[in-house]
Every structure is written in structure tokens, then in C-alpha cells.
Specification:
By secondary structure, the protein is an alpha+beta fold. It has 17 helices and 13 strands. The longest helix is centred in the middle third of the chain and has 21 residues.
Length: 440
């Protein structure tokens, strides 16, 4: 009835990954918000959208310590801040059980100080049940802003991203007013304009060219030129000019699936300019004003965000001793909301259908994907799979009293109580002994 499955579906891994990262945050005293993917309110994204990794925004002053806490809990660094993107905003780590996590020290497009921005988002935080654990997420206003800003740096060939059409495009007047107010407080007008198709209104801004390349696509040469122009100081520009010819060793390692040799790094150094010239010659002409737009007043009469390109150094002390890559396919989103013992238990109590005699222990995550239960201690692991009668017992445990579990399972499988009582009670005892279930 149970199994330590070597390859649980991505939907289960990512949701339990959120739970594991939240638990590391709690144990290390770190303030963080889960963003994107399963952390987003379902009403703000198009149907069928799923998360493929865990994204968290960490209080900037706590980033270094949190990275150390993740490494101590079994995560390995894949790509650092400096090598991760043009904005140097996130580091990527990998866990053999929980998959990938992107640790954000800031969010691209937000112009105010990262610490101030985090505090603004943190002040409106709420909880979302992800993988059976109460995870902290921004409120729906902030989630809308994040979705639009993220879309602004994703090339969509002139089309408006589905997330924007759903979250911002369908927002009513009051919701839009709240979003616009937060955009202004975050200094995120330019990036918000890029996400909603109004980037041309910021043509005179220093960061315009960078967001144009991000939102419409461009060559490596165009991106680097835009990054240099967007840099806020001459020191930042000089730094970018000096590192532009260098090989992004961490990115090359991801492509190769291993750490590159010195010879491979040297070859890549000479190949880069050749590819850049070839790419530039083949690049199609891009014309201004050809993108679709979503009407908004949030992008008018504002100054662009500051600080893009600054502070591109990695957090100290996080080594890249091993690079791990995976090739998991993206599954369909589960048809039902992920199972949560807390949610089932609350529903049972509200309807009077059970006293909730059992609870999910602290540090245990659980999720239902297509009727299969995936449960694990977090962040330790491993993931245990409950199928068939085991899954039914699991649901019965959290929706009824201890005395009613056998009756509920018997009713489901049309079995005699005397025939299944010993097996069901023994299975529940095993869950208790393994620490996956606890009595209230």
C-alpha cells in the first residue's frame, strides 16, 4: 500500500519542495515569501498553469544565512546570483528530493531598495496551503504585480502573457487601483509597462533598452549593450564592460551537466564572440510600437526603476562544489486542489462529520495528485507514496474520528469490518509510528 517511489511526479515534488523550503525558513528564523507557481492564487493565473520549481523572495539581510541553511539541509548550488540573469536577482539550488529552488534577494523591475520592497510585500503577507504546510505568500495585489513584472522580462513575441491577461486584464476598478498604488510604491512603473505592453511610454528612461530586449527578445550583444546603458553608475558600467567577454562558467556547467574543463572554458571564450556576431547578423529587425497592450494608468508619468545592474556579487561562502541537472517533463496540472490534512480536517469539523482525531505533525508535508497521496517529513524526506486503499485510509484518518476510520474504509470498498479491521488499524499504527500522523 505504500512505496518509496524513485520518481514521483513533478507536481508532487514541487509542492512538497515548497513545504521543505518553508520548513528550512522556520527552523533558521528566515523571513521569506513564496512567489509564482503554486504560491499564486488560482484566480490570478490561466487554467492549467503549474509550477516547475520553487521560487522564494527572502528578506535581503537574511539571504546569506538562508543559503547556508539550505546547503546544510541538502541543497546544492547550481547557479549563483551573478551568473543567473542580467539582474543578478536569484540563485538556483537543487535538492535530489525536492528539485530546484530559486532564492530571490530582490525582484527584477522593482526600483526601491530591496529591503524596503520586501517590507512592503511582507506587510500584506498571508498563508497558503502548499504541500500540507502553511507557506507565507504575498497578498493578491502583490501577486498581480509580481506576475506582470515577471511577464515583462519574458519575451512573448509582442503578445501579452496569459498571466497578465488573467490577473491584470480581468481585474476590476478597485483591484486595479490597489495594484497601481503598489506599483508606484515599489518604483516598478517601467517594468509594469513592459508587462502590459506600454513600454514605449518609457522610451526616454535609461532602463528602457534592457526591458525592451527582455520583453521583445534580442541578441546577446543587444542585451549586453542594454545592460551597460541601464547600469546606474560609471563603476557599474565599467564592471559590466570588463566581465562581458568572460565565460559564464556556471551556465556552461548547466548546459554540459557537469563542471567544464579548462579546455572547454577556453574554447567557449573564443566561440562566444563568433556566435554573437552570427546572431547579430541573423537577427530580425524589431519595430517599436508593435506589441499588444493591456490598458493601464499605472505606467503614466513615472520615473524608471533604479539600481538595475548594481550589486552583482554573490553571497559569500556558498560554494558550487557540484552541479546537478534533471530533465523532468512538465505534467498536467492535477484536477483537484492539492490534498491538505489541515483543510480536510477543518471541513470535517465545520460540517460536523468528524472530530478530527488525527493531525499532520509539524514538519510533515502531504499532497494529493490524481488520487495518489505523496507524504514526506520535510526537509529530510524521502517521499512516500500511498495508493489505493492506503490513500483511502489516509483521507479517512483526517476526515473522521479514530473510531470511524475502519467504517469509512469498509464503506468505500464495500468490505466487511471484520475482514479489514486488522489491516486498517495496523496501517494507521504504522503511520503513527513513522511520525507521518499524530493524535490531536
Amino acid at each position: 500500500m505504500t512505496d518509496l517511489h524513485p520518481e514521483p511526479p513533478l507536481a508532487a515534488v514541487v509542492q512538497l519542495g515548497h513545504a521543505a523550503v518553508q520548513r528550512v525558513a522556520e527552523l533558521s528564523g528566515t523571513d521569506l515569501l513564496h512567489i509564482k507557481g503554486y504560491a499564486i492564487d488560482p484566480t490570478l493565473t490561466e487554467e492549467g498553469r503549474i509550477g516547475t520549481d520553487v521560487d522564494v523572495l527572502v528578506r535581503p539581510a537574511q539571504v546569506r544565512d538562508f543559503l547556508h541553511a539550505l546547503v546544510a539541509a541538502g541543497w546544492t548550488r547550481v547557479i549563483g546570483f551573478r551568473a543567473g540573469s542580467s539582474f543578478g536577482h536569484a540563485a538556483t539550488l537543487h535538492h535530489t528530493c525536492w528539485g530546484y529552488v530559486d532564492v530571490h534577494r530582490m525582484f527584477p523591475g522593482i526600483g526601491v531598495d530591496p529591503g524596503e520592497a520586501f517590507e512592503l510585500l511582507w506587510s500584506g503577507r498571508r498563508t497558503a496551503d502548499i504541500g500540507g504546510i502553511a507557506c507565507l505568500v504575498p497578498d493578491t495585489v502583490a501577486q498581480t504585480v509580481i506576475l506582470v513584472l515577471n511577464a515583462g522580462r519574458t519575451a512573448t513575441a509582442g503578445a501579452i502573457a496569459p498571466d497578465v491577461l488573467t490577473s491584470w486584464g480581468r481585474a476590476d476598478g478597485a483591484q486595479r487601483a490597489a495594484v497601481e498604488a503598489l506599483v508606484r510604491r515599489l518604483g516598478a512603473q517601467l517594468a509594469f509597462a513592459a508587462g502590459t505592453g506600454h513600454l514605449e511610454e518609457f522610451h526616454a528612461q535609461r532602463e528602457y533598452a534592457l526591458w525592451r530586449v527582455m520583453s521583445e527578445g534580442g541578441t546577446r550583444l543587444e542585451e549586453w549593450r542594454a545592460r551597460i546603458v541601464a547600469a546606474p553608475t560609471w563603476r557599474d558600467r565599467l564592471h559590466l564592460i570588463l566581465i562581458a567577454p568572460l565565460v559564464n562558467v556556471e551556465h556552461l556547467a548547466v548546459l554540459l551537466g557537469r563542471r567544464p574543463t579548462r579546455r572547454e572554458i577556453a574554447l567557449e571564450f573564443f566561440r562566444r564572440p563568433v556566435r554573437g556576431v552570427h546572431e547579430q547578423l541573423l537577427a530580425p529587425a524589431r519595430h517599436r510600437g508593435a506589441t499588444a497592450t493591456v490598458p493601464t494608468d499605472a505606467v503614466r508619468g513615472a520615473t524608471g526603476p533604479e539600481g538595475i545592474g548594481a550589486d552583482l556579487t554573490d553571497a559569500d561562502g556558498i560554494g558550487a562544489d557540484r552541479t546537478t541537472t534533471t530533465g523532468s517533463a512538465q505534467p498536467d496540472r492535477p484536477g483537484a486542489v492539492p490534498a491538505s490534512p489541515q483543510r480536510e480536517q477543518r471541513a470535517a469539523e465545520e460540517t460536523g462529520s468528524g472530530a478530527g482525531g488525527y493531525r499532520l505533525p509539524v514538519g510533515v508535508g502531504a499532497v494529493d495528485v490524481d488520487g495518489v497521496i505523496y507524504v514526506a517529513p520535510v526537509p529530510e524526506g524521502p517521499i512516500r507514496i500511498l495508493t489505493g486503499s492506503a490513500a483511502e485510509i489516509w483521507v479517512a484518518v483526517f476526515t473522521g474520528t479514530p473510531d470511524s476510520v475502519v467504517e469509512r474504509v469498509a464503506l468505500t470498498f464495500e468490505a466487511e469490518l471484520i475482514d479489514i479491521r486488522s489491516a486498517v488499524e495496523g496501517f494507521v499504527s504504522g503511520l503513527l509510528a513513522d511520525g507521518l500522523v499524530a493524535r490531536r
